[in-house]
Write a structure and sequence with these properties.
40% helix, globular, TIM Barrel, 24 helices, 5-stranded parallel beta sheet, alpha/beta, 2 domains, 8-stranded parallel beta sheet, 21 strands, binds glutamine, 12% strand, single chain, binds zinc ion
Amino acid sequence: MPRIHNLGFPRIGARRELKRALEGYWAGRLDADELQRRGAELRRRHWRQQAAAGVDPVPVGDFSWYDHVLDVTAMLGVIPERFAGNPLDLDTRFHMARGRAAGRPDVAPCPMTKWFDTNYHYIVPELEAASRFRADPAPLVAELAEARAEGHTPKPVLVGPLTWLRLARPIDGSDPLAHADALAEAYARLLQGLGEAGADWVQLDEPALATDLPQDWWAAAERIYDALRTGPVRVLLAVYFGDAGPWQPRLESLPVAGLHLDGVRATETLATALERWDGERVLSAGVIDGRNVWRSDLDALAGRLGPAARRLGDALWLAPSCPLLHVPVDLEGETRLPEGLRPRLAFAVQKLDELGELARRLDAAELPASAGGATATTRAEDVVFPPERLRRRRPYPERAPRQREHLRLPRVPTTTIGSLPQTAEIRRTRRDWRAGRLDDAAYETRMREEIGQAIAEQEALGLDVLVHGEAERNDMVEYFGERLEGIATTAGGWVQSYGSRCVKPPIVHGAISRPGPITVPWFRHAQSLTERPVKGMLTGPVTILQWSFVRTDQPRAETARQLAEALRAEVAELEAAGARIIQIDEPALREGLPLRAAERPDYLRWAVDAFRLASAGVDDSTQIHTHMCYSEFGDILDAITELDADVITIEAARSRMALLDAFAEHGYPNEIGPGIYDIHSPRVPEQQEMLALLEAAARVFPLERLWANPDCGLKTRSWAEIRPALANLVAAARTLRARH
Ligand code: GLN
Ligand code: ZN
């Protein structure tokens, strides 16, 4: 019978126990011992759940207090000078992740960014030419002992050296590859320590090998893995989120005792490997989708795996395609899903049960010839976005005067990105309503009061274009998921986004349609309270798609098209209700980019079409805004231009307008609002500081096409912070106007 194992289990806990423990500790409500106790409890529970499903060995090291990349960075001892402290102290790691250092509250955290094409964020290692590696696996060794004491066979899991190095940021511009040999040596010592602590297998995660990796990086991979060949442990090299592309033969000949391949993203590659695997080394077949929530077609899988299972015996391991970090923990407790959906779903616990069932079928040689799981039969190219509905009536230069006429705004108008502080009171109101302690009418009254206050505050601040404040939204994607047909939301389907933060991605399970208005009544109320334009505020089709679990039986492009149609109807109704400006946020457009460059043009084509389908139906005098908040635009500026939004607001404060330069150099033709207020920090920027940023912007962009706004939404800030900050922002814009 093939062995089943798991690359990693969600660490957050089915009821987000880790989140509660962390936030309690950070707030000083829990002491370090209690925090440790709760972490140990979660690990124990998760090992038991996995063992019960037949998983053996169980992963160790997939649990993390904040981030598994940061854990490896700590074991390697690579900590920026500003944090001086024992790298293995938990508090040092928290400082690196969240900013501040022992005794100093104002130390900048390490940067954080998205883990490959997922919505998980890791803490970026900071590397310099002078960096030296230590290698102390003590935290992992301790967990190894815990697992053994519980009667499990543990398999330590670490981010592999190549991936760690690839993700590290050389802060002095030095060449990371110069560290390759020293890093290999450090990993060898880590493995040595794990071997001495009784580990037989160690899993090294190398998703970087599934990206476009330059030739010299492959050479480094070969040197590094050669250096790890002789240690006391057997290395299982795990490649997921794709395959090695043209370098697949090179990957398969790396000198490791076992190789894991992603049989969901790279089905053909796994099939080929299964056919020619000689059985001297372990092949781990990642056949259960670790990135989505659908049940697998076990008949089809048993059919695909049967011959190899018979031939390879226990040299064949079965696993999820990637660590289960990206799916919710357990379906148990999801009692309010739409009729018939639950039997189609598998969260982490159910996925492991599927593995067990698959292994049993293979063992019993129940090998039906059937195939044809829920795979798409149409291709992205076949999805039709009707061209005549993707174009505004006139081009931007002809629309702009009409909008100016309609809006009558000063030059460099001031606005915000949409959300205003989600106060404890707003959250309590929503909780009460959901729990039935507050009826619909009372809830609506409360939200309308919030909107009233938001409008009054903004008028008093002197902002030119107002927002209703998004008080009614728990989350910018889930809110829409709850109001569209064909999309389900879960009660507790939490997935870690970063640290203690989790999201509950909706599940797109059927044809999407819009049963009724989503945001229109809130907008109408807000606009009724003021003469100034209030922005209609929507989440874009690509972002809803990207932050949901989606169907696999149709191309993503088709799901995007259906979402865009629904949003287009909402846009039309907002316009009819008097919205002169409608903002369609697409903060996830860039992260949807496929990992392989070759697949990007196709994605960008349908992503742009989806945005245009959602937005292009309005009159030329209606202004379409979009908002994106990330720091790398370079490679998608063409696509962003093609969105043809009248105004785009971007994050720019932290990069001190470097981003804006990129737009200017590209000749971005429409209006732009570079963020001049970094909302990620509680700091209140001075007027002078924002004015300087605006002046910098005015040097590369004509004033007629410039806006003044913060970097992103203000929902995580307090009124005490944003009142003075926005007052300074308005003052800065006025000074700029007076000067030019
Ligand atoms: N309109 C949203 C807000 O202001 C945009 C959030 C985002 O860009 N992630 O919160
Ligand atoms: Zn944003």
